[in-house]
Amino acid sequence: MGMTTPPRTLAEALRARDDESLAGLLRARPDLLSPVPNDITQLATRAGTRASVVRALEHLDRFALQTAEALAVAPDPAPYDILLALLTGDGQDDGTARDDAGTAIRSAAPGALATLREQALVWGEDGRLRLVRTARELLAPSPQHPSPTGLGPTVAEATAGMSPGRLQEILAAAGLPATHDPVSAVASLSALFTDRTRMGELLDTAPVEALSVLDRLVWGPPYGEVTPNPTPPVKWLRDRGLLLPVSTRTVVLPREAALHLRAGRAHRVPEPLPPAVVAAATRDPQAVDRAAAGQAFLAVSTVEELLTSWNGGGPPILRAGGLSVRELKRTAAVLDVSEPIATFWLELAYAAGLLASDGEADERYAPTPAYDDWTELPVQDRWVHLATTWLTATRTAGLVGGQDAKGRALSALGPDLDRSAAPEVRHRILALLASLDPGTAPDPETLLARLRWERPLRGASTSAGSTTDLRSRIALWTLNESELLGITGRGALSSQSRALLDSGPAKAAALLAPLIPEPLDHVLLQADLTAVAPGPLERPLADTLSVLADIESKGGATVYRFTPGSVRRALDAGQSAADLHAFLAAHSRTPVPQPLSYLIDDVARRHGHLRIGAASAYVRCDDEAVLNEILADRRSATLRLRRLAPTALAAQIDPASLLEGLREMGYAPAAESAEGDVLITRAGTRRTPPRTPPAPVPEGPPVPDGTLLGAAVRAIRAGDTAATVVHKETDGTAATAGSLPRTTSAETLATVQAAAMTGSAVWIGYVNAEGAASQRVIAPVRVEGGFVTAYDHTADEVRTYPLHRITGVAELADDATT
Length: 818
Known about the structure:
By secondary structure, the protein is of the alpha+beta class. It has 33 helices and 27 strands. β18 and β19 (648-651) form a beta hairpin.
């Protein structure tokens, strides 16, 4: 669909594109598809709206953005040579020093311009380049919104409204001939500022202090404040128009003068090439894979330990949602990590669907049924599940501890932690790591510099040295989290992670499996009531041992400590002393120490000697002396006990609190049922109802696939055909489509029947059931029963229309195409 004349509007420029180019626009700017535009004109209108243009500008790289900024301060329309001069300068400032930069700019400029054209931010031929009006308004300078280039308004804009007398004074002071025509005066002053020879002669006569004032304004901001009685250097500049008044106290350096001082450059530092990612260290790739695999195993173990500790029910949920600071500290202590790292594991487990609210009245966190399924998987598959969840999750653990827009603290597992940019930043960081040689750990600062070049407008700051913008913060968190998760090892991307990004989860799991240590079926018991696990344990052994003993330290080997409380926990879970002795003897490579045997026997002998039930609560014991001892103990005052019988005490607190209170006093009571049987507490029985993981919050509309793009382009083309097609009026003359055609019912029936017989297309006006009128191009196939069945070029599908809703019909002109 070529054009013989230059386009006059953005719509005409889009209409001249082929289908592949239109699909490229919709792929780059998917917001234009919500909903699918009716025709090219509507597509162009939507592409020029402020929200859509802002979004498109945010997705430009730094040089494409600098190209758009240069067009915003160039004449409209601007030839390509003018644009290139604004990017490279006129070469008058430092000669050959900028030759290399100019070569790079000239090489990169066509690509940047092609990107702007593809995204419909620029249209027109190279001789008449036009930046869409909304983009020019966003990027052009104004007192309220200074240009990113630091340039001020033109002489014509700055002198608008200035009195002719004042213009004459400026011309006289600058040595220009007087003219009574304000337009000629402005043109004369502009010509002076753009003439390098005359401008150089003028500045040669300037006081040194005046040149210092210009140096402070030349790269922006171009506005400055002056007193009612300015200093002589400022007065010299103001008298000659080098500073023009904006208000009674504000002056501005006009654009033409600034460009002369900048040697024609719109930007101080054009950046045509992306910064290179520099290697900080090069390591053995196999060592990287082993380190990452070890950390991957630790990540799986940490998540499992976290959720195992919440098997009986986790901490309560705050009224506003999330975990309290106290509970977060407690969780960090259990995992033996810092609070930010504990937050990361909590958020990862939550995003993976392994952790959720139980939905009870006293709402608490607990593992989900999916956690049980996850624990049955091999270690490598469990890691892949965590890694893929992290890559796509929008919940951002690094925000915890900060504040939201309303000044409220952000808590772990709480609301307002979703950041839609997180998945894209994570994927981009890992893609940059993957672009390096295996075993190469990058310099984080060069990674951040590259990220800011690719998306310079996002976040609070775009300066090269700032790390305060959100994308940079997410990037730093990504580097730390990828190391914690085992995506990277010693700062470099592992082979299994490369496979995860390139080939998918199955390949990554296959590469990780040989690097995971084989689980052990034994421990080493020691005389100090500890057991040492020299490596990962088989699941049944680890589950039983975690109930029977407390983890004291972790690392290459895990140390478990046996205490009265841990042994009682195992007895509460239904184990007997004989079971525990047999378990230890079967799984220890060393003899069972005598102190450990004595500890088990002693706790078992006392376990269940006291029985706790619901009265609201009671204590019973066959040994009256034990009950006398409890009543005599001052610590039992808070339990509010009283004797009911020689072997029974009643309490005014619930059984659970009574159990906890007596255990703190050193006893080993057991809970009993209403029938008098000991209640066995099974570990790991509390689960939430089935929950779905939290859905990531997308960043704008999703990128459409090829099928949807093809259908959208066909629909837009068809709608454009209906809107712009030429049709014949009833008198036979040709006219463009405008108002709905009007024909009688008989004429309508006869025309569509003839079109169905000849297979030709016609133009109709149609009013639907809601009363909305539209014009369509259809090719009738069958006419019967008061309905016409036709292929609708506008909708690109076969439809059936009631004849009584067709306002009129007209034949297409002979040169019309569909």
